[in-house]
Structures are given as structure tokens and as C-alpha cells.
């Protein structure tokens, strides 16, 4: 490319990129200013809104002592169980639908497609009514359950499993390997990128959930982090420093995972048929 | 032997199938049944009323406002987000100095949970917040943003696009990188300019990821909830009363579960129609 053109392109890319990152830089810096000090650097706007010259970690200390620390642990626990149980359930269903031939497979696949057609948020309110009837309100089970059966994840894994050569399975069967062995010793090890992508999808679903925990868990001891953060914001005297610190913590966890596994994530999305 | 294989298969698929039926199909059916009934809180009775809830809903000015707001919002937010994502993808998919860093910066807001970005932007939009501090610097007067009926929806739109654009950009960049370089070289030999190359080569070859992004973005913008519930409560003057918030409000604030369920059913039908297009796009491998 021509040098002038390349420089223009790079300048445009840099400006856009900085506009996107600036709000987070502001959150980071404001979280390192004690209490509501960030307001001082806004009128007039100063560099100290974006560069923490005198970092102070008091907000983080206060945050951990309050309800938020407990809420973060709750969120981590809910996400952990969701990923482990959800992957096991989704992978085993996908295996059944791709490696095994059985009567009724069409019906099960129909259920997967049907559940895929109904976005979770759209039926969250009727589901919350049912969970109340089933006594799952204010329980970890109630918080975790919606995350484990994910039609989209099953669909993704099935697409991936279908690409595993049949001959491999037949050879293992002739050698006397059971279906459980085929699943755990052939399919799972060969599908690591797809499993990472699926696990990340399940994790993000729970970590970012706001509406469902709002509907199902009202008890303070079982509050999840996004709700605890929203409550901090709704209090009578708002401590913005703590809110900024909490926002940063809630963002960093998925950010690190996404940057680390982004390739798997987009790969598993694109191999489902977006690309030929 | 055959029966045994059937039992094995059943053991593998049953947990997932049961979870999906209980967590997706049953609530949808339950919403449908509830939407055909009416519960009287006073007399504690429930009776079948046919489609009366739907009739009531269509005659309710609040619901009409919601449909109008949601439709206008969808028609504005989706083209803006997709076009922005496409422009940034076109800029960032080529090799540039620092290219990986610029791409990461645009992508990072995707990691911010909806409730968190709502709260951050809520503070930024305050009268003495970050955005107004910027407007001061460039000499434009301070704006009310979330408390103004004219600006509230646009403020929500900016907030949602900050998260969304980086996400959709990733799919478009993947699509752009799949276009063989030889196509562009051939166009160059033919003397085609930048615009003609874009219209005749890039756009047609990007059709599939673009279609996916269009459908998936439309779905996600129909389901916007946290920004409305946390920041605007549907206001000011009902200008941000999007459908998910209206349903939540009907079920928990007004306490009219039957009417809320009728609205859920309508939403699920619209969603199912949109997602079936998406599913068809995903499942159509190597057709052309």
C-alpha cells in the first residue's frame, strides 16, 4: 500500500480504537481515585480522568468488605458449575445426536432446534413463575439450571462432532471399545477447540446474566455480582469509586478469558456453516 | 442388541433433551396457556377467556407505545450497528502497524456485561459526567441525555453500540479474510476502482456473514432489558419503553401476569420467525 494511504489508515484505526477504549480507561482511572474524587477531573476535563497519577486502592478494599465480595464469589461458583455440568450435558447430547443412530433422534434434534428458536430472555419471565412453583427461588440450583441446557451449544458441538471420521469410530468399536470410551477417548480429545468455545459461551451467559438473577434470587446472601453492582448504584448515597472498582472487576474476568480464547470462540462460531 | 444400542443413545441424549424441554419448551407452552386465561386476584379465580388478553393487549395504549418504540429502535439501531461494524472491519482487516492492538481495543468492550456498561454509561451521561465534560471542551453546551425524551433513546443506542460493534466486527473481519486475494488482484488488472471492487467483489462475498450478523443483531436488540430497567424505567415519557421492559413491568409492577404472558407469546413468535432465518443461514452449507 502507498505510504500516505497507509498512514491515513493507521491514524483512522488508532482514533477509532482509542474512542472505544477510552470509557474503560476512564473507569480504571476513576476506580483508583478515592470515593467521588473522579468528579474533580471532569470539570474541567483533565488528563487525570484517564491517567491514574496517584493510584489509590481504597475502593477495592471497601468493595471486597461489602456485599460485593460475596456476590463475586457467588458469580464465580454459579459460572463454574454451569460450565462443568453444562459442557458434560451438551457434549453428551451432541455425541448422541452425531455418533449414534437411533429411533427418535429426529425428535431430539427437533427439540434442540425448537429451543434454539426461543431465546432464553424471551421466556425468562414464564420460567421464573415455574421456578417459583417448583421451589427453586433463592437457590443456587435456580440460578444455575437455565445455563446448563443450551441448544446453541449442543448444535455447535454436534456440527463439530459430525466432522470426526466414521472409520475412527468403527475401528474402535471393532477393537471392543464401548460407546462411553468412544465419547471420552476419541470425541472429547479431538474436539478441544470446540469445547473451549462452548465452555466460554456457557461462562459468558452466566457471568453477564442480569435479568434472570433479578427474577429468581432476591436473597442478599445469594446475590450475583451484576445485581450487587446495580444495587450499589441505586443506594441513597452513591459511592462511585466502589461502583467503578466493581465494574472493572466484572469486566476483567471475561476480558482475560475472551482475549485468551478469542480464536477458539470465533472459530467455533464460524465453523458451524458461516464458512464453507 | 438393537434395544441395548437404543438405551445407550437414550442415556447420552436424555439429560440435554430433558433440560431443553423443561427450560425452553415448557415455559413457552405455559406462557401460551396463561395467555388464554384470566386470574382475578380479588375473587382468586382463574377462567379461560380465549383470545381476550390479546384483544386487550392490542387495545392498550401502553402496548401500542411499546410496539412503536421497539420498532423504531430496531429500525435505527440495527443498520447503525451493522454499518459501523462493517466500516471498522474494512479498516481493520488489513495489515496495519499496531493492527492487533487497535482490533483488541474495539473488541474489549464486548467483555463488559450489559448491567456494567449500563451503569458506567449512566454515570458518563450524568449532567456532570464524562460526556458533558467532553462537550465542554469542544464548546457544545451540556446536554440532558437520559432525562430528555428526544435524547434518551439515542443515549441507550450509543451505550449498546459500544458493546455490540466490536462483536459483530469480529465476524465480518473473519468473512473479509476469507475472500481470496486473487479476486482483488483480478479486479485491479481490470482497472476497477475502490468503490466498484467493494460493490462487485467484497459485498457479494461477504453476504453470508453479513446476513448472520443482521439476524443475530436484530435478535439481541429485541431483547434489550438491563439499560432500561436500571437507567430509564421506560421513560422519559415512555420513549424508551422497549418490549422486554414492558413485559417485566406488566408482570412485576402492574401484576397482570396474564397480559404479560400474552406479550411473551407474541415476542416468542416474532423471535422464532427471525431465528429460523438465522438457523436456515447457519445450516445451509456449501449450497452456492
From TrEMBL, chain A:
<feature type="transmembrane region" description="Helical">
    <location>
        <begin position="12"/>
        <end position="32"/>
    </location>
</feature>
<feature type="transmembrane region" description="Helical">
    <location>
        <begin position="75"/>
        <end position="100"/>
    </location>
</feature>
<feature type="domain" description="ABC transmembrane type-1">
    <location>
        <begin position="72"/>
        <end position="261"/>
    </location>
</feature>
<dbReference type="InterPro" id="IPR035906">
    <property type="entry name" value="MetI-like_sf"/>
</dbReference>
<keyword id="KW-1133">Transmembrane helix</keyword>
<dbReference type="Pfam" id="PF00528">
    <property type="entry name" value="BPD_transp_1"/>
</dbReference>
<keyword id="KW-0472">Membrane</keyword>
<comment type="similarity">
    <text>Belongs to the binding-protein-dependent transport system permease family.</text>
</comment>
<keyword id="KW-0813">Transport</keyword>
<feature type="transmembrane region" description="Helical">
    <location>
        <begin position="186"/>
        <end position="205"/>
    </location>
</feature>
<protein>
    <submittedName>
        <fullName>Carbohydrate ABC transporter permease</fullName>
    </submittedName>
</protein>
<keyword id="KW-0812">Transmembrane</keyword>
<feature type="transmembrane region" description="Helical">
    <location>
        <begin position="143"/>
        <end position="165"/>
    </location>
</feature>
<dbReference type="InterPro" id="IPR000515">
    <property type="entry name" value="MetI-like"/>
</dbReference>
<feature type="transmembrane region" description="Helical">
    <location>
        <begin position="107"/>
        <end position="131"/>
    </location>
</feature>
<feature type="transmembrane region" description="Helical">
    <location>
        <begin position="240"/>
        <end position="259"/>
    </location>
</feature>
<keyword id="KW-1003">Cell membrane</keyword>
UniProtKB/TrEMBL annotation, chain B:
<keyword id="KW-0813">Transport</keyword>
<keyword id="KW-1133">Transmembrane helix</keyword>
<comment type="similarity">
    <text>Belongs to the binding-protein-dependent transport system permease family.</text>
</comment>
<feature type="transmembrane region" description="Helical">
    <location>
        <begin position="104"/>
        <end position="124"/>
    </location>
</feature>
<dbReference type="InterPro" id="IPR000515">
    <property type="entry name" value="MetI-like"/>
</dbReference>
<keyword id="KW-1003">Cell membrane</keyword>
<feature type="transmembrane region" description="Helical">
    <location>
        <begin position="71"/>
        <end position="92"/>
    </location>
</feature>
<feature type="transmembrane region" description="Helical">
    <location>
        <begin position="7"/>
        <end position="26"/>
    </location>
</feature>
<protein>
    <submittedName>
        <fullName>Carbohydrate ABC transporter permease</fullName>
    </submittedName>
</protein>
<keyword id="KW-0472">Membrane</keyword>
<feature type="transmembrane region" description="Helical">
    <location>
        <begin position="264"/>
        <end position="282"/>
    </location>
</feature>
<dbReference type="InterPro" id="IPR050809">
    <property type="entry name" value="UgpAE/MalFG_permease"/>
</dbReference>
<keyword id="KW-0812">Transmembrane</keyword>
<feature type="transmembrane region" description="Helical">
    <location>
        <begin position="210"/>
        <end position="231"/>
    </location>
</feature>
<feature type="transmembrane region" description="Helical">
    <location>
        <begin position="152"/>
        <end position="174"/>
    </location>
</feature>
<feature type="domain" description="ABC transmembrane type-1">
    <location>
        <begin position="67"/>
        <end position="278"/>
    </location>
</feature>
<dbReference type="InterPro" id="IPR035906">
    <property type="entry name" value="MetI-like_sf"/>
</dbReference>
<dbReference type="Pfam" id="PF00528">
    <property type="entry name" value="BPD_transp_1"/>
</dbReference>
Amino acid at each position: 500500500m502507498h505510504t500516505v494511504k497507509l498512514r491515513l489508515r493507521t491514524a483512522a484505526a488508532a482514533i477509532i480504537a482509542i474512542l472505544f477504549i477510552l470509557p474503560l480507561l476512564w473507569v480504571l482511572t476513576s476506580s483508583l481515585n478515592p470515593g467521588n474524587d473522579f468528579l474533580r477531573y471532569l470539570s474541567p476535563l483533565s488528563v487525570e480522568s484517564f491517567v491514574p497519577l496517584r493510584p489509590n486502592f481504597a475502593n477495592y478494599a471497601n468493595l471486597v468488605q461489602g456485599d460485593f465480595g460475596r456476590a463475586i464469589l457467588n458469580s464465580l461458583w454459579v459460572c463454574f458449575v454451569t460450565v462443568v455440568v453444562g459442557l458434560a450435558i451438551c457434549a453428551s447430547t451432541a455425541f448422541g445426536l452425531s455418533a449414534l443412530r437411533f429411533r427418535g433422534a429426529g425428535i431430539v434434534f427437533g427439540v434442540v432446534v425448537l429451543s434454539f428458536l426461543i431465546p432464553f430472555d424471551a421466556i425468562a419471565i414464564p420460567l421464573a413463575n415455574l421456578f417459583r412453583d417448583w421451589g427453586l427461588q433463592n437457590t443456587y440450583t435456580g440460578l444455575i439450571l437455565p445455563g446448563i441446557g443450551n441448544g446453541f451449544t449442543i448444535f455447535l458441538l454436534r456440527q463439530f462432532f459430525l466432522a470426526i471420521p466414521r472409520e475412527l469410530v468403527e475401528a474402535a468399536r471393532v477393537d471392543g471399545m464401548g460407546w462411553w470410551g468412544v465419547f471420552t477417548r476419541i470425541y472429547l480429545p479431538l474436539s478441544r477447540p470446540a469445547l473451549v468455545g462452548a465452555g466460554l459461551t456457557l461462562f459468558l451467559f452466566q457471568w453477564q446474566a442480569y435479568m434472570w438473577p433479578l427474577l429468581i434470587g432476591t436473597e442478599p446472601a445469594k446475590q450475583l455480582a451484576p445485581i450487587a453492582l446495580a444495587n450499589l448504584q441505586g443506594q441513597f448515597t452513591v459511592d462511585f469509586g466502589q461502583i467503578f472498582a466493581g465494574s472493572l472487576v466484572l469486566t476483567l474476568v471475561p476480558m482475560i478469558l475472551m482475549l485468551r480464547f478469542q480464536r477458539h470462540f470465533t472459530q467455533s462460531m464460524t465453523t458451524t456453516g458461516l464458512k464453507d | 442388541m438393537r434395544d441395548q444400542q437404543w438405551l445407550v443413545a437414550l442415556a447420552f441424549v436424555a439429560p440435554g433433551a430433558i433440560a431443553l424441554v423443561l427450560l425452553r419448551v415448557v415455559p413457552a407452552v405455559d406462557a401460551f396457556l396463561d395467555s388464554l386465561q384470566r386470574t382475578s386476584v380479588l375473587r382468586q379465580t382463574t377462567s379461560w377467556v380465549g383470545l381476550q388478553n390479546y384483544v386487550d393487549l392490542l387495545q392498550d395504549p401502553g402496548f401500542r407505545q411499546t410496539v412503536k418504540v421497539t420498532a423504531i429502535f430496531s429500525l435505527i439501531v440495527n443498520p447503525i450497528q451493522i454499518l459501523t461494524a462493517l466500516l471498522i472491519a474494512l479498516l481493520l482487516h488489513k495489515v496495519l502497524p499496531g493492527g492487533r492492538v487497535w482490533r483488541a481495543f474495539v473488541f474489549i468492550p464486548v467483555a463488559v456485561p450489559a448491567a456494567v456498561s449500563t451503569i458506567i454509561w449512566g454515570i458518563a451521561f450524568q449532567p456532570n459526567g464524562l460526556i458533558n465534560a467532553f462537550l465542554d471542551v469542544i464548546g457544545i453546551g451540556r446536554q440532558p441525555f437520559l432525562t430528555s425524551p428526544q435524547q434518551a433513546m439515542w443515549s441507550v443506542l450509543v451505550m449498546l453500540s459500544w458493546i455490540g460493534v466490536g462483536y459483530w466486527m469480529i465476524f465480518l473481519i473473519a468473512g473479509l479474510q476469507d475472500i481470496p486475494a486473487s479476486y482483488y488482484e483480478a479486479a485491479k488488472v481490470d482497472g476497477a476502482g475502490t468503490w466498484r471492487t467493494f460493490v462487485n467483489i467484497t459485498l457479494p462475498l461477504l453476504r453470508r456473514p453479513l446476513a448472520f450478523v443482521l439476524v443475530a443483531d436484530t435478535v439481541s436488540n429485541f431483547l434489550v432489558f438491563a439499560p432500561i430497567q436500571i437507567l430509564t424505567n421506560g421513560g422519559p415519557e415512555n420513549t424508551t419503553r422497549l418490549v422486554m421492559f414492558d413485559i417485566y413491568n406488566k408482570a412485576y409492577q402492574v401484576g397482570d401476569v396474564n397480559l404479560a404472558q400474552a406479550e411473551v407469546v407474541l415476542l416468542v413468535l416474532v423471535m422464532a420467525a427471525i431465528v429460523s432465518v438465522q438457523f436456515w443461514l447457519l445450516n445451509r452449507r456449501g449450497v452456492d
